[in-house]
């Protein structure tokens, strides 16, 4: 670059980047503009026009904040020990979260951690060590929490924290039973749907879908231009969301705002209009589905005497009957794409108490409209670009160097390509993530398995503690997000302050909510300070071929751009150092450095057939050329609509899950879309939470829980933060704090924002930027009020995922002015027989905060 | 002679703030000698995305107006600067980071409020149009490079070429009345500066209320017909680009053979007249 500037490459949750470094300091981070040597993008022809995306990568806001994150004053720069923690004397667990820290050497820190690992195993036996991470990570296939971390903990033996299917909830626990797709946690495929939607559809319904905020997941701003093309093509758009979201604001179209968690009533009313006005695909229903008559009978009042009319739904959703009728008529007559969630399988509505019904309900609606026929499918052009899916490059969820061949991604899609020492956890105990506090405080809990291998995998209940295992005594926490992201989080705060946990170590890059509740803190570095390798928006696993979100597939060498800040080390190096002290260095690392592992990973991919390792290292990225127009993937579900064999590039359903003929039919028992689910009939046909057909069951926390609603008359919705990636890049003096829609600067403090309808604010004497207390029986959070018409009266909107926990009094027992909205959300399972959260079903009251009152 | 101009389309801006964050990435902690001293990590918004909501639930829209330095050709800041701010031959206005020490008064000289005070360094600071990058051969400033929608555009053109664009694309400047000859031009500013009247027409038949599609709504001001709108399948209509505080209007709403209705509204800012029911 000249002038002593080096240009490296790296990758983030929001797109790959060039990193400009001068004299050991990062001076700028930009998206990647391709040059003449890179492959040209694809072209889609639709309705007489041609569309080609730009020859460059795009970014998300959080990607543009990375430099400020790397040099954040909240970086943990050296190992630390809580001042009143003595591993050989008084441990003072009750002071976690209040007492300060002193700097210690790496040797001392590693000796304490390695010593505690040995001690708890010796004193308590297998299972005593628990570890958990966030659902996300700094980018990079090796360093990801599904890579090195798993190998390390398998090597020492651990009680893993099992993730609930957080992003998918209602899809996993609900939709799976009606259309299969268990390997996608109940979400859908999207092959070639961009082209089909552009060429053949007339309307797109965005239902609980705001890809302009969430980028699907990891998709930067790649989908934006495609949605602008839809507009250019005159394809109509409708947005069903209690919040006038950013996709609605940019794209325009009709906004329909049901009360949070009532969508399933609207679904039934839409079906009612289609049935009574003959607006559905009878031939498809007859040949591709089963159980329709039973659902139809329920909708027409056959079993409860209630006609599920648009007027009936109005009392639940608050949406005028006339609007639902108009929508149903338009939908029933136009070729329509439905995008339910930012990508099919997501959506805040799936994280409500009624999320299972919403997710299976929308599948049923598409079953009535002939899903798979030209112009009729699921997706909002966020996924399904015509990139080359044949080029092999694994995503992070394939488990890279984990060696964990029983982990679904690894065994099926990587292990054969990248031989390595297998690593197996010998501890058969698991703690459900939503019940960590109960496991620790009460010493017992249970959960349902997030097993995506089959539809029935989720029916297995497991107990904690496991037979013959030790309860958890040591918590090795990786990251510090949970106070901002898990439900009813005062539970998590209080858990740390009990003596059930003899030792807590936290390995983090920054100080976030949980870090200061540890006894020892280990400083990790960012992915800009270590080597890794990855692809743009490729997570693999549950979102197999997730890179179809991007316009150009880009494989990236993640250079170590600068030396680690302070004394921080890469996570892999920290694990290696501990392994050495436990004589486990070889099983953990196979004697290979991070850089060596990058080369092994490179060799496992198809990259090696296109570019030499040396060239890849130097250039830093490779653009995977798109396929020719003729060899584009078939459209998802087209084979199904046409009664053919499955022809999309998917591994699933697994062979054993086909009923009559291999590759014919869906994963369900009938091989068809099931309005009445055979798996639910087999499991528990009388479960009122999840009957075999989708019925309207009012939310267990919402307008119909009368007593609670009288006390807390506002519904709090807490979707994913637009500017940060969950807790990543919130707080920490990241530049994102300057965005006044993210945090508001009031009297020198950056407050979290709560959006409240102007009429609700007026009734409470609340003005713009007033400090307000959001509260219910579970907690209290101090926010800055923004008055808006983007939410209906009765609804409050505040994003989840504050990285900052800042109690104004005793931790766990006082209001938080950091902004952890999840202090207020319910920990009740979405349905009883599940391990799933219904965050969005949350009743609160809001009042002006006088700055004094501290208790909950 | 080609000079720099920026074009900002308000209708395409989606408030992602990639522009603001990229700008911070370029200027925070970096000194570009002769152009700018480091921007503080927090507190300054060289491109400031302003927000505007119109209407009331559920008939609303939202628009955003990114506001960088206008690089005025008749710049009040230069006039007030006593030589510490100047215009380059390519049109860019630079506040000299050395000469401007102590000149807090410059902050007030800018009618567009785009000069920020850096208390630590004791200097006024603002958007430089990324002059240092242009001088190194970059084709776009940082903010333009990361804008996902094309809401931001940069053009290096002669005056003639650019006046053609102004005409073809109907560009406007912000606060024309200030007469500072900005080099930043806007498209679709009405989304920010004008207001609308919206409403929904419905029809009751056999006890059932439905949206009234194809209803005809005519807007009058002092009995003069201004515009006509046909409702969509949700019965919605919209009259846009009205002046704020423009006073009384009359709406005449007719649907099929029903007797037409007349509604009078007073326009201060955007207004949602709600449901108009025929029965
Ligand atoms: N109210 C409400 N709550 C929700 C949701 C909602 O819709 N509403 N959505 C849910 C969903 S879908 C999700 S996915 C979860 C996400 O919830 P979490 O997964 O808990 O959130 P993240 O912020 O992704 O957590 C990542 C953590 O890992 C740490 N970390 C990142 N990279 C590294 C690294 O390289 N090394 C180390 N040592 N640590 C690292 C980060 O600092 C952070 O603490 O939130 C859920 N919570
Ligand atoms: N910027 C950013 N992008 C992200 C993330 C992030 O944290 N930040 N997280 C990533 C992750 S892990 C995931 S899982 C995805 C999540 O992607 P999504 O699940 O699609 O995103 P959400 O924001 O939870 O919800 C989408 C919309 O649903 C609406 N909604 C909430 N409740 C209801 C309801 O009851 N009914 C209806 N109709 N709508 C409702 C919200 O207002 C929101 O606009 O995003 C990914 N992308
Ligand atoms: S906008 Fe303000 S700072 Fe920029 S040139 Fe004009 S007067 Fe000067
Ligand atoms: S042109 Fe450059 S200095 Fe001006 S706002 Fe854009 S990025 Fe910032
Ligand atoms: S980057 Fe573009 S779309 Fe995003 S806020 Fe800036 S101008 Fe608007
Ligand atoms: Ca043993
Ligand atoms: Ca089967
Ligand atoms: Mo998620």
UniProtKB/TrEMBL annotation, chain B:
GO terms for molecular function: 4 iron, 4 sulfur cluster binding; metal ion binding. Residues 4-33 form the 4Fe-4S ferredoxin-type domain. Keywords: 4Fe-4S, Iron, Iron-sulfur, Metal-binding. InterPro entries: 4Fe4S_Fe-S-bd, ET_IronSulfur_Cluster-Binding, Ig-like_fold. It comes from the Bacteria. CDD domains: TH_beta_N. Pfam families: Fer4_11 (PF13247). SUPFAM superfamilies: 4Fe-4S ferredoxins, Cna protein B-type domain. PANTHER family: PROTEIN NRFC (PTHR43177), PROTEIN NRFC HOMOLOG (PTHR43177:SF3). This is Oxidoreductase. It comes from Alkalibaculum sporogenes.
